[in-house]
């Protein structure tokens, strides 16, 4: 088994663990972390697919770098949204906001 195959298998395992955690947890921050783990696993799969050929595929390498940037931006945006959702008071007993 080659190194690229090992990384492919490890990436699939990481994606599976992240997806299972994403589906089973209720906390929004834990879901965000699980989504980041799933994304990291998918990027690992892309890296392993890029390393299969002797000159490493530059298109897949560029996709991984782009994915890292998108993941960082998504995580920051989601963290702000989670904070706003958790700081918003619940409207119970028919209270209306003005």
SS elements, strand count: 0
Q: List the helices and strands in order.
A: HHH
Q: Do you know the CATH architecture?
A: Orthogonal Bundle
The largest sheet is: none
What does this structure look like?
Helix content is 77%, strand content 0%. By secondary structure, it is mainly alpha-helical. It has a single domain, classed as Helix Hairpins. Helix 1 (3-24) packs antiparallel against helix 2 (28-50) and helix 2 (28-50) packs antiparallel against helix 3. The longest helix has 30 residues, at 58-87. The chain is elongated. The model has no long low-confidence stretch (mean pLDDT 89).
SSE blueprint and pairings:
Layout lengths: L2 H22 L3 H23 L7 H30 L11
């Amino acid at each position: 088994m080659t190194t690229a195959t090992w990384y492919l298998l490890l990436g699939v395992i990481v994606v599976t663990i992240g997806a299972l955690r994403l589906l089973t947890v209720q906390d929004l921050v834990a879901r965000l972390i699980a989504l980041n783990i799933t994304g990291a696993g998918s990027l690992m799969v892309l890296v392993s697919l890029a390393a299969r050929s002797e000159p490493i595929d530059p298109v897949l390498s560029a996709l991984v770098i782009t994915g890292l940037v998108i993941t960082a931006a998504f995580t920051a945006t989601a963290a702000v949204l989670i904070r706003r959702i958790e700081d918003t008071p619940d409207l119970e007993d028919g209270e209306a906001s003005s």
